[in-house]
Amino acid sequence: xxxxxxxxxxxxxxxxxxxxxxxxxxxxxxxxxxxxxxxxxxxxxxxxxxxxxxxxxxxxxxxxxxxxxxxxxxxxxxxxxxxxxxxxxxxxxxxxxxxxxxxxxxxxxxxxxxxxxxxxxxxxxxxxxxxxxxxxxxxxxxxxxxxxxxxxxxxxxxxxxxxxxxxxxxxxxxxxxxxxxxxxxxxxxxxxxxxxxxxxxxxxxxxxxxxxxxxxxxxxxxxxxxxxxxxxxxxxxxxxxxxxxxxxxxxxxxxxxxxxxxxxxxxxxxxxxxxxxxxxxxxxxxxxxxxxxxxxxxxxxxxxxxxxxxxxxxxxxxxxxxxxxxxxxxxxxxxxxxxxxxxxxxxxxxxxxxxxxxxxxxxxxxxxxxxxxxxxxxxxxxxxxxxxxxxxxxxxxxxxxxxxxxxxxxxxxxxxxxxxxxxxxxxxxxxxxxxxxxxxx
Length: 441
Known about the structure:
This protein is mostly beta strands. It has a single domain (6-436), classed as Methylamine Dehydrogenase, Chain H, CATH 2.130.10.10. 5% of the residues lie in helices and 41% in strands. The protein contains three helices and 32 strands. The strands form eight sheets. A four-stranded antiparallel sheet has the order 1-32-31-30, with no helix packed on it. It has a four-stranded antiparallel sheet with strand order 2-3-4-5, with no helix packed on it. A four-stranded antiparallel sheet has the order 6-7-8-9. The radius of gyration is 20 Å and the shape is globular.
Protein backbone atom coordinates (compact mmCIF):
# COMPACT_ATOMS: atom_id res chain seq x y z
CA UNK A 1 0.00 0.00 0.00
CA UNK A 2 1.33 3.43 -0.95
CA UNK A 3 0.79 5.14 2.40
CA UNK A 4 2.10 8.54 3.35
CA UNK A 5 4.82 7.94 5.95
CA UNK A 6 3.60 8.78 9.45
CA UNK A 7 6.52 11.17 9.93
CA UNK A 8 5.02 13.42 7.25
CA UNK A 9 1.66 13.40 8.96
CA UNK A 10 2.21 14.10 12.63
CA UNK A 11 5.87 14.90 13.03
CA UNK A 12 8.07 15.91 10.08
CA UNK A 13 11.73 16.02 11.16
CA UNK A 14 13.51 19.34 11.14
CA UNK A 15 15.61 18.52 8.13
CA UNK A 16 12.61 18.00 5.84
CA UNK A 17 11.92 21.06 3.74
CA UNK A 18 8.33 22.27 3.78
CA UNK A 19 8.15 22.39 -0.02
CA UNK A 20 9.30 18.79 -0.38
CA UNK A 21 6.77 17.62 2.21
CA UNK A 22 3.94 19.48 0.48
CA UNK A 23 4.89 18.15 -2.96
CA UNK A 24 5.13 14.54 -1.82
CA UNK A 25 1.88 14.74 0.13
CA UNK A 26 0.03 16.33 -2.78
CA UNK A 27 1.11 13.57 -5.13
CA UNK A 28 0.09 10.90 -2.67
CA UNK A 29 -3.28 12.47 -1.93
CA UNK A 30 -4.06 12.96 -5.61
CA UNK A 31 -3.35 9.30 -6.42
CA UNK A 32 -6.47 7.13 -6.57
CA UNK A 33 -4.97 3.68 -7.18
CA UNK A 34 -4.27 2.72 -3.57
CA UNK A 35 -6.54 0.30 -1.69
CA UNK A 36 -9.19 1.66 0.67
CA UNK A 37 -8.69 1.50 4.42
CA UNK A 38 -10.90 0.69 7.42
CA UNK A 39 -11.06 2.67 10.69
CA UNK A 40 -11.44 -0.16 13.23
CA UNK A 41 -10.71 1.66 16.48
CA UNK A 42 -10.33 5.01 18.26
CA UNK A 43 -8.10 7.29 16.15
CA UNK A 44 -7.88 4.84 13.26
CA UNK A 45 -5.92 1.75 12.22
CA UNK A 46 -2.69 2.73 14.03
CA UNK A 47 -4.41 4.65 16.83
CA UNK A 48 -2.52 7.79 15.82
CA UNK A 49 -5.35 9.83 14.30
CA UNK A 50 -3.82 9.89 10.80
CA UNK A 51 -5.88 9.16 7.66
CA UNK A 52 -3.55 7.67 5.05
CA UNK A 53 -6.05 6.66 2.37
CA UNK A 54 -5.59 8.16 -1.08
CA UNK A 55 -8.03 9.25 -3.80
CA UNK A 56 -9.64 11.85 -1.53
CA UNK A 57 -11.11 15.13 -2.80
CA UNK A 58 -9.00 18.27 -2.55
CA UNK A 59 -11.90 20.63 -1.84
CA UNK A 60 -15.57 20.19 -0.93
CA UNK A 61 -18.17 20.52 -3.71
CA UNK A 62 -20.25 23.71 -3.66
CA UNK A 63 -23.38 21.60 -3.19
CA UNK A 64 -21.89 19.83 -0.17
CA UNK A 65 -20.86 16.23 0.37
CA UNK A 66 -22.88 13.33 -1.00
CA UNK A 67 -24.70 11.65 1.89
CA UNK A 68 -24.74 7.92 1.21
CA UNK A 69 -27.10 6.99 4.05
CA UNK A 70 -28.52 7.91 7.42
CA UNK A 71 -29.46 5.48 10.18
CA UNK A 72 -31.31 6.05 13.44
CA UNK A 73 -29.32 5.70 16.66
CA UNK A 74 -29.91 6.72 20.25
CA UNK A 75 -27.90 9.17 22.35
CA UNK A 76 -24.17 8.68 22.85
CA UNK A 77 -20.76 10.31 22.58
CA UNK A 78 -18.90 7.29 21.21
CA UNK A 79 -17.50 7.69 17.72
CA UNK A 80 -18.25 5.07 15.04
CA UNK A 81 -15.65 2.56 13.84
CA UNK A 82 -15.47 0.62 10.58
CA UNK A 83 -14.19 -2.88 9.88
CA UNK A 84 -14.76 -5.42 7.10
CA UNK A 85 -17.81 -3.74 5.56
CA UNK A 86 -19.50 -3.11 8.92
CA UNK A 87 -19.97 0.03 11.01
CA UNK A 88 -20.13 -0.23 14.80
CA UNK A 89 -21.31 2.33 17.36
CA UNK A 90 -22.80 2.35 20.86
CA UNK A 91 -25.80 4.23 22.25
CA UNK A 92 -28.21 4.44 25.19
CA UNK A 93 -31.93 3.76 25.35
CA UNK A 94 -33.32 5.61 28.41
CA UNK A 95 -36.80 4.05 28.26
CA UNK A 96 -38.85 1.97 28.77
CA UNK A 97 -35.84 0.19 30.30
CA UNK A 98 -32.53 1.99 30.73
CA UNK A 99 -30.08 0.16 28.47
CA UNK A 100 -26.81 0.54 26.57
CA UNK A 101 -26.51 -0.98 23.11
CA UNK A 102 -23.81 -2.03 20.66
CA UNK A 103 -25.09 -1.52 17.10
CA UNK A 104 -23.84 -2.88 13.77
CA UNK A 105 -24.73 -1.53 10.32
CA UNK A 106 -23.81 -2.49 6.75
CA UNK A 107 -21.13 -0.05 5.61
CA UNK A 108 -22.43 0.39 2.06
CA UNK A 109 -26.17 0.72 2.78
CA UNK A 110 -26.61 1.62 6.45
CA UNK A 111 -28.90 -1.35 6.93
CA UNK A 112 -29.03 -2.48 10.59
CA UNK A 113 -27.40 -5.91 10.90
CA UNK A 114 -27.61 -6.61 14.63
CA UNK A 115 -27.75 -5.03 18.07
CA UNK A 116 -26.74 -6.18 21.53
CA UNK A 117 -28.35 -4.54 24.56
CA UNK A 118 -27.98 -4.83 28.33
CA UNK A 119 -29.56 -3.05 31.33
CA UNK A 120 -27.48 -0.13 32.53
CA UNK A 121 -28.34 2.58 35.07
CA UNK A 122 -26.70 5.98 34.60
CA UNK A 123 -27.25 7.01 38.20
CA UNK A 124 -24.38 9.26 39.25
CA UNK A 125 -23.09 9.82 35.68
CA UNK A 126 -22.84 13.41 34.48
CA UNK A 127 -24.22 14.15 31.00
CA UNK A 128 -26.44 11.08 30.72
CA UNK A 129 -26.52 11.11 26.94
CA UNK A 130 -24.89 7.72 26.39
CA UNK A 131 -21.69 5.65 26.09
CA UNK A 132 -18.43 7.51 25.55
CA UNK A 133 -15.79 5.02 24.43
CA UNK A 134 -15.48 4.06 20.76
CA UNK A 135 -15.64 0.29 20.18
CA UNK A 136 -12.50 -1.58 19.13
CA UNK A 137 -12.71 -4.20 16.35
CA UNK A 138 -9.98 -6.80 15.91
CA UNK A 139 -9.84 -10.17 14.13
CA UNK A 140 -13.59 -10.66 13.91
CA UNK A 141 -14.39 -9.47 17.43
CA UNK A 142 -15.78 -6.14 18.65
CA UNK A 143 -14.95 -4.90 22.15
CA UNK A 144 -17.17 -2.27 23.77
CA UNK A 145 -16.88 -0.46 27.10
CA UNK A 146 -19.95 1.23 28.55
CA UNK A 147 -20.07 4.37 30.68
CA UNK A 148 -20.60 2.48 33.95
CA UNK A 149 -18.13 -0.35 33.32
CA UNK A 150 -19.94 -2.97 31.27
CA UNK A 151 -17.29 -4.55 29.05
CA UNK A 152 -18.23 -7.02 26.32
CA UNK A 153 -16.57 -8.98 23.54
CA UNK A 154 -18.94 -9.79 20.69
CA UNK A 155 -18.70 -11.68 17.44
CA UNK A 156 -18.44 -8.89 14.86
CA UNK A 157 -20.48 -10.73 12.22
CA UNK A 158 -23.44 -11.66 14.43
CA UNK A 159 -23.32 -9.79 17.76
CA UNK A 160 -23.08 -13.08 19.66
CA UNK A 161 -21.58 -12.64 23.13
CA UNK A 162 -18.14 -14.26 23.46
CA UNK A 163 -17.43 -12.93 26.94
CA UNK A 164 -18.44 -10.02 29.15
CA UNK A 165 -17.47 -8.31 32.40
CA UNK A 166 -19.12 -5.97 34.87
CA UNK A 167 -16.10 -3.98 36.06
CA UNK A 168 -18.06 -2.17 38.77
CA UNK A 169 -19.15 -5.46 40.33
CA UNK A 170 -16.02 -7.54 39.73
CA UNK A 171 -13.34 -4.90 40.44
CA UNK A 172 -15.17 -2.26 42.51
CA UNK A 173 -14.53 0.10 39.61
CA UNK A 174 -16.08 3.52 40.16
CA UNK A 175 -16.72 5.41 36.94
CA UNK A 176 -15.29 8.92 36.93
CA UNK A 177 -17.80 11.75 37.05
CA UNK A 178 -18.59 11.65 33.32
CA UNK A 179 -18.36 7.89 32.87
CA UNK A 180 -15.76 5.48 31.56
CA UNK A 181 -14.60 6.89 28.26
CA UNK A 182 -11.26 5.35 27.23
CA UNK A 183 -11.50 3.08 24.18
CA UNK A 184 -10.16 -0.45 24.90
CA UNK A 185 -6.75 -1.23 23.40
CA UNK A 186 -5.84 -4.54 21.75
CA UNK A 187 -2.15 -5.29 22.31
CA UNK A 188 -0.95 -8.72 21.19
CA UNK A 189 -3.29 -11.26 22.77
CA UNK A 190 -4.50 -8.76 25.40
CA UNK A 191 -7.35 -6.32 25.74
CA UNK A 192 -6.22 -3.40 27.92
CA UNK A 193 -8.89 -1.33 29.68
CA UNK A 194 -8.81 1.78 31.85
CA UNK A 195 -11.13 0.68 34.64
CA UNK A 196 -10.38 2.57 37.85
CA UNK A 197 -10.77 -0.66 39.82
CA UNK A 198 -9.59 -1.64 43.30
CA UNK A 199 -7.24 -2.68 44.69
CA UNK A 200 -4.44 -1.61 42.33
CA UNK A 201 -6.66 -2.16 39.30
CA UNK A 202 -6.83 1.22 37.59
CA UNK A 203 -5.62 -0.60 34.45
CA UNK A 204 -6.75 -4.13 33.59
CA UNK A 205 -5.54 -6.57 30.96
CA UNK A 206 -7.71 -9.48 29.81
CA UNK A 207 -7.12 -12.31 27.40
CA UNK A 208 -8.79 -10.85 24.31
CA UNK A 209 -10.31 -14.22 23.34
CA UNK A 210 -11.54 -15.56 26.69
CA UNK A 211 -11.83 -12.55 29.00
CA UNK A 212 -9.56 -14.16 31.59
CA UNK A 213 -7.68 -11.63 33.70
CA UNK A 214 -3.99 -11.51 32.81
CA UNK A 215 -2.83 -8.63 35.02
CA UNK A 216 -3.91 -5.48 36.83
CA UNK A 217 -1.89 -2.38 37.65
CA UNK A 218 -1.83 1.02 39.37
CA UNK A 219 -3.70 2.47 42.31
CA UNK A 220 -4.21 5.76 40.45
CA UNK A 221 -7.38 7.75 39.97
CA UNK A 222 -9.03 7.01 36.62
CA UNK A 223 -9.43 9.58 33.86
CA UNK A 224 -10.90 9.56 30.35
CA UNK A 225 -7.74 9.33 28.22
CA UNK A 226 -7.34 6.25 25.99
CA UNK A 227 -4.14 4.19 26.28
CA UNK A 228 -1.75 3.76 23.37
CA UNK A 229 1.03 1.24 22.63
CA UNK A 230 4.42 2.20 21.20
CA UNK A 231 7.72 0.51 20.42
CA UNK A 232 10.61 2.54 21.79
CA UNK A 233 14.05 1.66 23.22
CA UNK A 234 13.46 -1.79 21.71
CA UNK A 235 10.57 -2.36 24.09
CA UNK A 236 6.85 -2.49 23.54
CA UNK A 237 5.32 0.02 25.95
CA UNK A 238 1.71 0.79 26.89
CA UNK A 239 1.33 4.49 27.69
CA UNK A 240 -1.41 5.21 30.21
CA UNK A 241 -2.28 8.68 31.48
CA UNK A 242 -4.15 8.56 34.80
CA UNK A 243 -5.25 11.21 37.26
CA UNK A 244 -1.91 10.92 39.04
CA UNK A 245 0.82 10.17 36.50
CA UNK A 246 1.89 9.41 32.96
CA UNK A 247 2.85 5.72 33.02
CA UNK A 248 4.68 3.30 30.76
CA UNK A 249 3.76 -0.33 31.40
CA UNK A 250 5.18 -3.58 30.12
CA UNK A 251 2.24 -5.13 28.25
CA UNK A 252 3.43 -8.62 29.12
CA UNK A 253 2.81 -8.24 32.84
CA UNK A 254 1.70 -4.70 33.68
CA UNK A 255 4.95 -3.84 35.46
CA UNK A 256 6.04 -0.22 35.33
CA UNK A 257 8.85 0.82 32.99
CA UNK A 258 8.66 4.47 34.05
CA UNK A 259 6.30 6.90 35.77
CA UNK A 260 6.15 10.71 35.60
CA UNK A 261 3.97 12.14 38.38
CA UNK A 262 1.19 14.41 37.08
CA UNK A 263 -1.51 14.89 39.69
CA UNK A 264 -4.49 16.52 38.05
CA UNK A 265 -6.45 19.01 40.09
CA UNK A 266 -9.90 18.34 41.47
CA UNK A 267 -11.76 15.37 42.85
CA UNK A 268 -12.76 14.41 39.30
CA UNK A 269 -9.52 14.79 37.31
CA UNK A 270 -10.10 15.63 33.66
CA UNK A 271 -7.65 14.20 31.14
CA UNK A 272 -9.42 13.35 27.90
CA UNK A 273 -6.89 13.93 25.11
CA UNK A 274 -4.94 10.85 24.05
CA UNK A 275 -1.16 11.04 24.61
CA UNK A 276 0.62 11.96 21.38
CA UNK A 277 4.03 10.55 20.43
CA UNK A 278 6.22 12.36 17.90
CA UNK A 279 9.59 10.68 17.33
CA UNK A 280 11.07 10.74 20.87
CA UNK A 281 8.59 13.30 22.23
CA UNK A 282 5.43 12.51 24.18
CA UNK A 283 2.82 15.21 24.84
CA UNK A 284 -0.04 15.11 27.33
CA UNK A 285 -2.41 18.08 27.65
CA UNK A 286 -5.16 18.43 30.25
CA UNK A 287 -8.36 20.37 30.81
CA UNK A 288 -7.23 22.62 33.68
CA UNK A 289 -3.82 21.39 34.83
CA UNK A 290 -1.65 22.48 31.91
CA UNK A 291 0.52 20.12 29.90
CA UNK A 292 3.78 18.18 29.92
CA UNK A 293 6.19 17.44 27.10
CA UNK A 294 8.40 14.41 27.77
CA UNK A 295 11.44 13.05 25.99
CA UNK A 296 11.67 9.26 25.68
CA UNK A 297 15.09 7.70 26.16
CA UNK A 298 16.34 5.67 23.21
CA UNK A 299 18.59 3.24 25.09
CA UNK A 300 16.17 2.09 27.79
CA UNK A 301 12.49 2.55 28.67
CA UNK A 302 12.56 5.89 30.50
CA UNK A 303 11.31 9.45 30.10
CA UNK A 304 12.20 12.94 31.33
CA UNK A 305 10.29 16.22 31.40
CA UNK A 306 11.32 18.82 28.80
CA UNK A 307 8.79 21.40 29.97
CA UNK A 308 5.60 21.47 32.00
CA UNK A 309 2.91 24.03 32.82
CA UNK A 310 0.14 24.36 35.38
CA UNK A 311 -2.20 26.44 33.22
CA UNK A 312 -2.00 26.87 29.42
CA UNK A 313 -1.93 25.11 27.02
CA UNK A 314 -5.11 23.16 27.71
CA UNK A 315 -7.62 20.96 25.91
CA UNK A 316 -11.01 19.77 27.05
CA UNK A 317 -11.41 16.86 24.64
CA UNK A 318 -9.41 17.27 21.44
CA UNK A 319 -6.19 15.31 20.94
CA UNK A 320 -3.34 17.59 19.77
CA UNK A 321 -1.81 17.34 16.31
CA UNK A 322 2.01 17.50 15.96
CA UNK A 323 3.39 18.99 12.73
CA UNK A 324 6.69 20.68 11.79
CA UNK A 325 7.85 21.16 15.37
CA UNK A 326 4.52 22.60 16.52
CA UNK A 327 1.29 21.25 17.92
CA UNK A 328 -2.27 22.41 17.30
CA UNK A 329 -5.29 22.08 19.58
CA UNK A 330 -8.40 23.96 20.71
CA UNK A 331 -8.21 25.09 24.35
CA UNK A 332 -10.98 24.93 26.94
CA UNK A 333 -12.74 28.01 25.62
CA UNK A 334 -12.50 27.45 21.90
CA UNK A 335 -9.28 29.29 21.05
CA UNK A 336 -7.63 27.18 18.36
CA UNK A 337 -3.89 27.46 18.95
CA UNK A 338 -0.47 26.78 17.47
CA UNK A 339 2.26 26.13 20.05
CA UNK A 340 5.98 25.68 19.50
CA UNK A 341 6.77 22.20 20.80
CA UNK A 342 10.37 22.80 21.85
CA UNK A 343 9.53 25.69 24.16
CA UNK A 344 5.79 25.50 24.82
CA UNK A 345 5.51 29.07 23.48
CA UNK A 346 2.19 30.12 21.99
CA UNK A 347 2.60 31.17 18.32
CA UNK A 348 -0.94 32.10 17.26
CA UNK A 349 -4.62 31.69 18.07
CA UNK A 350 -7.81 31.85 16.01
CA UNK A 351 -11.50 31.12 16.53
CA UNK A 352 -12.23 30.38 12.87
CA UNK A 353 -12.54 26.58 13.28
CA UNK A 354 -14.53 26.84 16.51
CA UNK A 355 -16.76 29.90 16.30
CA UNK A 356 -17.34 32.74 18.73
CA UNK A 357 -19.31 30.96 21.45
CA UNK A 358 -17.51 30.81 24.80
CA UNK A 359 -17.79 27.03 25.03
CA UNK A 360 -16.95 26.16 21.42
CA UNK A 361 -14.09 24.08 22.71
CA UNK A 362 -13.97 20.86 20.71
CA UNK A 363 -12.22 20.27 17.40
CA UNK A 364 -11.18 16.78 16.31
CA UNK A 365 -8.10 16.92 14.06
CA UNK A 366 -7.32 14.30 11.42
CA UNK A 367 -4.23 14.95 9.25
CA UNK A 368 -4.35 13.78 5.64
CA UNK A 369 -1.27 14.46 3.56
CA UNK A 370 -0.38 18.13 3.87
CA UNK A 371 -3.94 19.02 4.85
CA UNK A 372 -6.08 18.46 7.94
CA UNK A 373 -9.73 17.54 8.41
CA UNK A 374 -11.23 19.42 11.37
CA UNK A 375 -14.59 18.38 12.84
CA UNK A 376 -16.00 20.89 15.32
CA UNK A 377 -18.76 20.53 17.89
CA UNK A 378 -21.24 22.38 15.66
CA UNK A 379 -21.20 19.38 13.34
CA UNK A 380 -19.10 21.13 10.68
CA UNK A 381 -16.37 19.39 8.72
CA UNK A 382 -13.54 21.67 7.65
CA UNK A 383 -10.64 21.03 5.28
CA UNK A 384 -7.65 23.22 5.92
CA UNK A 385 -3.91 23.65 6.33
CA UNK A 386 -2.03 24.33 9.56
CA UNK A 387 1.38 25.95 9.77
CA UNK A 388 3.41 28.23 11.98
CA UNK A 389 2.40 31.04 9.63
CA UNK A 390 -1.28 30.56 10.43
CA UNK A 391 -4.55 28.74 9.80
CA UNK A 392 -5.79 28.48 6.20
CA UNK A 393 -9.25 27.15 5.47
CA UNK A 394 -9.93 25.40 2.15
CA UNK A 395 -13.52 24.18 2.51
CA UNK A 396 -16.26 23.87 5.11
CA UNK A 397 -19.57 22.00 5.18
CA UNK A 398 -22.28 21.48 7.78
CA UNK A 399 -22.36 17.71 8.05
CA UNK A 400 -24.61 16.80 10.99
CA UNK A 401 -26.93 18.69 13.31
CA UNK A 402 -25.72 19.25 16.87
CA UNK A 403 -28.13 17.78 19.43
CA UNK A 404 -29.13 19.09 22.82
CA UNK A 405 -28.82 15.81 24.70
CA UNK A 406 -25.09 16.07 25.19
CA UNK A 407 -25.00 19.42 26.95
CA UNK A 408 -28.09 21.11 28.30
CA UNK A 409 -27.04 24.72 27.74
CA UNK A 410 -26.37 24.25 24.02
CA UNK A 411 -26.49 21.65 21.27
CA UNK A 412 -23.20 19.93 20.44
CA UNK A 413 -21.74 17.20 18.23
CA UNK A 414 -19.00 15.73 20.41
CA UNK A 415 -18.38 12.26 18.94
CA UNK A 416 -15.17 11.72 16.95
CA UNK A 417 -15.67 10.96 13.21
CA UNK A 418 -14.39 7.86 11.46
CA UNK A 419 -12.64 8.11 8.07
CA UNK A 420 -12.83 4.89 6.10
CA UNK A 421 -12.96 3.72 2.50
CA UNK A 422 -13.13 7.25 1.07
CA UNK A 423 -15.97 8.27 3.39
CA UNK A 424 -16.49 10.06 6.68
CA UNK A 425 -18.94 8.75 9.28
CA UNK A 426 -20.35 10.96 12.04
CA UNK A 427 -23.11 10.64 14.64
CA UNK A 428 -25.19 12.73 17.00
CA UNK A 429 -27.89 11.70 19.51
CA UNK A 430 -30.36 10.86 16.75
CA UNK A 431 -28.57 9.53 13.68
CA UNK A 432 -25.43 8.08 12.17
CA UNK A 433 -24.52 9.17 8.65
CA UNK A 434 -21.97 8.29 5.97
CA UNK A 435 -20.77 10.91 3.46
CA UNK A 436 -18.43 10.55 0.50
CA UNK A 437 -15.02 12.20 0.43
CA UNK A 438 -13.90 10.41 -2.75
CA UNK A 439 -12.27 12.46 -5.47
CA UNK A 440 -14.26 12.58 -8.67
CA UNK A 441 -12.82 10.29 -11.39
